[in-house]
Amino acid sequence: MKIGELAERTGLAPSRIRFYEGIGLLKVERQPNGYRTYPPQAVLVLELIATAQQAGFSLDEIRTLLPPDLARWEHGSLIETLRSKVQDIEALERRLAQSKAHLVALLAQIEAKPEEIDCATNAGRVLSWIRSGELESPALATGDVTTLRKASRRRSGRTG
C-alpha cells in the first residue's frame, strides 16, 4: 500500500510515517519509480508503536521491543519488558507522590503564616522548618497532609 492509504488507515500524517521509517521502526519497499510500498502489517506496526508510546515507552525502547518480523515475536522477552516498564512506572509514581507530599507540606507551611509577620519573615520561618528536617517527617512520607496542616497551624498559633 502507498503512504497515503497507510496514513488514512492509521490516522497518522505521512511525515510521521516517514519519520518512523527513517528511524528504523517501519519497513518499506521502494518501487522503481521511488514510491514507497508498505506491507499490510505496517498498519499493525504503527498501532503497536502508538500503543507503546502511550504506555510510556521511548522510541529507542520500542525499537528494541519490536522484532524485525512480527511472526517471530519472543513472548518471554515481551512479558519481561512489559513487567520492567510497570516497575519503572511504579517507581515514578512513588517519586511523584513524594514530590507532591513535599509541595503540599510546603504549601501548608506557607499558608500557616501568622498574621503578625510579613512574607519575608514567613519565608525565613519556612526555610527554618525545611532545615529542621520536618519536610522529611513520617507524616509527609505517608502523605498525611491533614496531620501536617494541623501541626503547621499549631506552630504558627492558628487553629482550625
Automatic annotation (TrEMBL):
PROSITE patterns reported for this sequence = HTH_MERR_1 (PS00552), HTH_MERR_2 (PS50937)
Going by the entry's taxonomy, the superkingdom of the source organism is recorded as Bacteria
Report the SMART domains cross-referenced here. HTH_MERR
Q: Does the keyword Transcription apply?
A: yes
Q: What would be an example GO MF term here? A: DNA-binding transcription factor activity
Q: Which residues form the HTH merR-type domain?
A: 1-68
Tell me which UniProt keywords the record has, alphabetically.
DNA-binding, Transcription, Transcription regulation
Q: Does the keyword Thylakoid apply?
A: no
Per its record, how is this protein called by name?
Answer: MerR family transcriptional regulator
Q: Which organism is it from?
A: Cupriavidus basilensis
